[in-house]
Amino acid sequence: MPELPEVETTRRGIARHSVGKTVARVVVRDARLRWPVPRTLGRRLPGQLIEAVERRGKYLLLRSRAGTLIMHLGMSGSLHVLPASTPAQKHDHLDIVFTDHTCLRLRDPRRFGAALWTERDPLTHPLLSLLGPEPLGEDFNAAYIHRRARGRRTAIKQFIMDSRMVVGVGNIYASEALFAAGIHPARATGRVSLERCERLVCSIRDVLRKAIAQGGTTLRDFRSSDGTPGYFQQQLAVYGRDGLPCPACGHPVRQLRQGQRATYYCARCQR
């Protein structure tokens, strides 16, 4: 599933080819995504200038004066900038066609993505209104984590993957950040000290920034808007390295299951 670095990479890629352009038409080949593509989209969006492409968590926001197109890439979705005349492939469900004859094309083999329209403030939309702070923003800090964690028995990895607590820290990046911070992924959230919360915040930010700089992590389906893969996988310290030596101490990396997800950690380095 595309996580925050992959979505941010996509945002930056499509913004260069969308902002300042006027929509000519919308082509919906299959409206059956996670939520049906609104029938009104083909009437509301054409004629509108795309003023900004923003990100909130793992949602992309294409803003115009008339409203905002809220997009999510789901499990395997991707957005590509193409000539509008490019023949559609099997899983190409939606085109935003611009007046310069280019298009923004949503490809989603599993159809877990979304393309929704709102004429209100998109941050008040039910899908976005309960999201926690952005991990790279000022509101996400050690005091915030320590306050929200107080008295909780939830494992710290599950806590930082909860989008109501902080957005965009997916499975890969949670494992990597906890390793960098020296915190065991199964440690009860309420037992993480303020000092350790400080290290964790710094580690989360560092891991995400490095991943964004490398264009994200390619493990299965992710490609950026121009079709190129992300390269952060080459820098992973523990994720997917079960049985291999820890890069810090040489002890074998271990794997455990948390919330039906694989977690990777070093039992010697993480406490």
Give the C-alpha Rg. 20 Å
Which sequence of SSEs, written as H and E, runs from N to C? HEHEEEEEEEHHHHEE
Overall morphology: elongated
Q: What is the distance, rounded to the nearest whole angstrom, between the alpha carbons of the first and last residues?
A: 28 Å
- Biggest sheet record: 4 strands, antiparallel
CATH class descriptor of the largest domain: Mainly Alpha
* Unreliable parts: 218-225
Helix/sheet category: alpha+beta
How many individual domains? 2
Beta-strand percentage range: 15-25%
- Tell me the number of strands: 10
Q: Percentage of helical residues?
A: 10-25%
Task: Return the average pLDDT rounded to an integer.
Answer: 92
The spatial strand order of the largest sheet comes to: 1-6-7-5
What fold name stands as the CATH topology of the largest domain?
Helicase, Ruva Protein, domain 3
Total helical elements = 6
What is this structure's SSE topology?
Blueprint (H helix, E strand, L loop, with lengths): L3 H15 L4 E6 L12 H4 L7 E5 L2 E5 L4 E5 L5 E6 L8 E7 L3 E6 L6 E5 L23 H8 L6 H5 L10 H11 L12 H20 L40 E5 L2 E5 L6
Helix pairs in contact: 1-6, 3-6, 5-6
Write a structural description.
The chain is α+β, with helices and mostly antiparallel strands and 271 residues long. It is 23% helix and 20% strand. The strands form three sheets. Strands 1-6-7-5 form a four-stranded antiparallel sheet. Strands 2-3-4-8 form a four-stranded antiparallel sheet, covered by helices on one side. A hairpin with a 4-residue loop joins β3 and β4. α3 packs across α6 (194-213) and α5 packs across α6 (194-213). The longest helix has 20 residues, at 194-213.
